[in-house]
Amino acid sequence: MRKQSVLLVEDDSSVSHIISTALKAEGMTVDSCRTVADRDNLLSGNKYDVLITDVGLGEADGISTLDAVRAQDADLPVIVISAQNTLNTAVRASETGAFEYFPKPFDLDELVEVVRQAVKPRVADLPVESIDDDSLPLVGRSAPMQEVYRMIARLLRNDLSVLILGESGTGKELVAEAIHSLGHRKSGPFVAVNMAAIPTDLIEAELFGHEKGAFTGAVASAAGKFEQARGGTLFLDEIGDMPMHAQTRLLRALQSGEISRVGGKGLVKLDVRIIAATNQNFEQLIADGKFREDLYYRINVVPIDLPPLRERASDIPALAVHFLNLAISEGLPRKSLSDKAMATLSRHSWRGNVRELKNVIYRAVVTAREEELSDSVIRPILKSQQNDEQRIQAAEDFEHQVKSIVADLIGDQDDPAAIYGKALEKFERPLLEETLNQAGGNQIKAARILGINRNTLRKKLTEYDIDPARAR
């Protein structure tokens, strides 16, 4: 049986040696070279099963010179490796028909496995376009982002459904936009809809459209988001907030490939790619009966886990500079960051992720007079931002506690009609006690704060056996 032959183009001798040794240990033959010219000479006199090429080869580019490779062997599978770890590199590799792309440093075992899989070649069928890194929506070269870039590159030529998972503010819509704008549907529309922002009773009409008179206020027929996105991409953000009745209809549409407008009888053929996103835990949603498991598997064909900013802190300087440049393009004054300010940004926890970083940069650009943003400018903004986050978190915690208390009360009550009085009792006592504390035991002041009559307050204090004299 003929051994699988590999042509390796790598100008770093140590990397070349490591790859060659690993492939030879698998029983493959390996020819190595360092330049594009040597690569072309070897290809002219030999037949290879796989080509592995670096991108940076001195003054040459391993990707842009692949036309010469295709001219000699149009079906040769190409594996691209590169230290130029940007989304641009991953996309360029994909657009030239690369079998796989590996950012350096890479997993050697994974590379060997991909070489094994590269027996059946793929033919490049998309034109090579020059893409500027600054025009791309995603910034960062950290290892977690490299995995995101690789996954995006794999999705550009197909219509597989994608589920983007990540915390709020990590850039889920930017990933969806990248998949659309760099993929084969880029000439079509990109339609984004936030499930959490649509009233429950209007969500089906919003997605699927409606006919005139279908419901009160439907004075004319209207196309829904599915029809508006025809030929392009429909991005369903916060899909975990979709009500169950709409989930059932969405599942039916994805299964059949057709939709009908609310109040309509005709069917509309779907021609759209579905990308969904959520910051919620789907396993918990399914366990709680809030999301259909069959729909989950329909939309989660290809998952992309978007890392929080704290897990890719090495990207913070590049992101900060990106936002400074973005601010300039929007008419704001030119600014720079001092080294100390940049270090402070890099150490911050970033609960609000990339969105929070952008807000901090923009606030600093607008409020600071000096051209160089110093640490003394950045720190107060971060502190103010942190105080805002704490207030938001406190409000969220309180809302969660209220819901939990109400759920417990309902579960404990034989007579659900009595729930209002029980809930009021739970919240009214601590409300009265804390208001009295804030008023220093002064009942007139406490009544004014609460916006109630003093006699009403006295009656409530007696009812709950609260002694104003014990107030702090």
Explain this structure.
The protein is of the alpha/beta class. The protein has four domains: 5-146, Response regulator (Rossmann fold), CATH 3.40.50.2300; 157-305, P-loop containing nucleotide triphosphate hydrolases (Rossmann fold); 316-389, Helicase, Ruva Protein, domain 3 (Orthogonal Bundle); 413-470, Homeodomain-like (Arc Repressor Mutant, subunit A, Orthogonal Bundle), CATH 1.10.10.60. The chain is 47% helix and 13% strand. It contains 19 helices and 16 strands. The chain has helices at 13-25, 36-45, 66-72, 87-95, 108-117, 143-154, 172-182, 203-208, 225-228, 244-256, 282-287, 293-299, 316-329, 339-347, 353-367, 375-412, 419-438, 443-450, 454-463; strands at 5-9, 29-33, 50-54, 56-57, 60-61, 78-82, 100-103, 162-165, 190-194, 233-237, 258-259, 268-269, 273-278, 302-305, 336-337, 372-373. The strands form five sheets. A five-stranded parallel beta sheet has the order 2-1-3-6-7, sandwiched between helices. Helix 17 packs across helix 18 and helix 18 (443-450) packs across helix 19. The longest helix is centred in the C-terminal third of the chain and has 38 residues, at 375-412. Keywords: Activator, ATP-binding, Cytoplasm, DNA-binding, Nitrogen fixation, Nucleotide-binding, Phosphoprotein, Repressor, Transcription, Transcription regulation, Two-component regulatory system. One of its GO terms (cellular component) is cytoplasm. Residues 138-366 form the Sigma-54 factor interaction domain.
